[in-house]
Amino acid sequence: MGDDAIGIISTCWYSAQLDNPENKKFVEGMKPRLQGRSPAFYAAATYTNGAVLEAALKKVDGRIEDKNALEAAVAGRATRYQLAAAR
User: Fold this and answer.
1) Contact criterion met (CB below 8 Å) for 60 and 69
2) Cα dihedral sign for 67, 68, 73, 75?
3) Beta-carbon contacts of residue 74 (< 8 Å; ≥ 6 apart)
4) What is the arithmetic mean of pLDDT over 15-30?
5) Which of 1, 4, 22, 61 has the most neighbouring CB atoms within 10 Å?
């Protein structure tokens, strides 16, 4: 957005400027795919959803047929992911 965005107040839940290691890694990994631009909240949401699903699948050893265990793994603290949350 450049200088046009200076002073804008947003209620968006994601910013590429979040200062945590997970977000920094995500932003640097996405910039080449976005021709140097920072990722926006749609990219962050998709990435975060994938990370939570991956963690849940690891927790149930890939047993997707055990729907109760998979649901519990998705809801559990072990799958919490910090990309889009300021610490």
Assistant:
1) yes
2) positive
3) 52, 53, 56
4) 90
5) 22
Q: How far apart are CA 58 and CA 44, in angstroms?
A: 21
Residue in the structure block whose two tokens are 């947003």: 10
Residue 51 and residue 23 in contact, taking contact as beta carbons nearer than 8 Å: no
Rounded Cα gap, residues 15 and 9, in angstroms:
12
> Can you give the length of the chain in residues?
87
* Residue-level pLDDT at 65: 96
Residue 12 CB partners (closer than 8 Å, separation 6+):
41
First to last CA, the chain: 25
* 8 A C-beta contact, residue 66 and residue 55: no
In 3D space, the residue among 17, 70, 71 whose CA is nearest the CA of residue 44 turns out to be 17
What does pTM read for this prediction?
Answer: 0.67
Query: Tokens 């849940």 map to which residue?
Result: 56
